[in-house]
Amino acid sequence: MTEQKKKILAISGSTRKDSSNFKILKFISENMNKEFEIELFEELEKLPHFNPDLDTEHPPEEVRAFRDKIDKAAGVLICTPEYVFSLPGSLKNALEWCVSTTVFSNKKVGLITASASGEKGHEQLGLIMKTIEAKFTDKTQLLIQGIRGKLNAEGTITDEKTLHDLIVFISNFEKEIGKLN
């Protein structure tokens, strides 16, 4: 009998195709233990603008599907850029659709901000995830500053420290997901 793989939902905060954040998630998915199955959520821009009037028992179908993916995942991995010292609007919008639910309550998450600076965006991501009761530690967070100079066009990480930090992050995230709640 084969053991079922633990599902990880990976969300890129960038809607740019083939962004640095997407490349980092791809690197992580290729380097995680084979007991995990990574699903990359690529429909961030398809979620409607958050509207509390629509956040009822029957929210829009795209929102229900997104929440369901989070609910069924053993963990969620978010890798995002910082735009104007904040989170990209599309990522914040997606997270706002989760505030009135418990889909992130006690959900183990890994948080990566990969941007030019990223400090403020990373701080805001942590605050939002705490607010919606997601579970993460200092070891399951990573800030990668100056990302554009740390990987090439093919997505290969060219900076040794970044490569090391990502390998350590993956190990810590796997350990957290493997722990019982």
UniProtKB/TrEMBL annotation:
<feature type="domain" description="NADPH-dependent FMN reductase-like">
    <location>
        <begin position="7"/>
        <end position="130"/>
    </location>
</feature>
<dbReference type="InterPro" id="IPR029039">
    <property type="entry name" value="Flavoprotein-like_sf"/>
</dbReference>
<dbReference type="GO" id="GO:0005829">
    <property type="term" value="C:cytosol"/>
</dbReference>
<dbReference type="InterPro" id="IPR050712">
    <property type="entry name" value="NAD(P)H-dep_reductase"/>
</dbReference>
<dbReference type="Pfam" id="PF03358">
    <property type="entry name" value="FMN_red"/>
</dbReference>
<protein>
    <submittedName>
        <fullName>NAD(P)H-dependent oxidoreductase</fullName>
    </submittedName>
</protein>
<dbReference type="GO" id="GO:0010181">
    <property type="term" value="F:FMN binding"/>
</dbReference>
<dbReference type="InterPro" id="IPR005025">
    <property type="entry name" value="FMN_Rdtase-like_dom"/>
</dbReference>
<dbReference type="GO" id="GO:0016491">
    <property type="term" value="F:oxidoreductase activity"/>
</dbReference>
